[in-house]
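During the reporting period the student researcher (J.K.) took over the structure-prediction task from the postdoctoral fellow and processed the backlog of single-chain submissions. One of the processed entries is reproduced below for the supervisory committee.
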Amino acid sequence: MTVDSFLDTNILVYAAAGSGAEMPKRRRSLELIENENFGLSGQVLQEFYVTVIRKIRVPLTPAAAMDWIEQLEAFPCLALDSGFVKIAIETSVRYGLSYWDAAIVSAAGILGAGTLYSEDLNHGQQYGSVRVCNPFRTRRERPEKGDR
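J.K. obtained the following structure tokens:
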């Protein structure tokens, strides 16, 4: 189960519920879903569900959120167990990340993703074999080291 990229929760939230000023992010997120060979984790799906039914301006119904999750079942999804928790803790300590961010980075690495799409981590940051890419950066923004 190897993928090219890993999608963080925010990508899925924008795809499912982005509106108004978030429409460019919604379009970009949908483009990633349609064109990338990506993977997810149980954590990402859990965070997605809670966010879209409780934490956004116009929440989805639980049934609509479940529809999204069922569609995402077509993509590789890393299950979480005690072994994974230990790996995420080690990643957290090694890179000084919160446990939750380390779990995302660790899941991406375990699935073989070279790119982690997220707007929550530093664009261009490398964590082992995983490099963070903020897919919403504009061309006007100064490139990070390694973007050139």
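The committee noted the following: Strands lie at 5-7, 38-41, 77-78, 115-117, 126-127, 130-133.
J.K. will present the remaining backlog at the next meeting.
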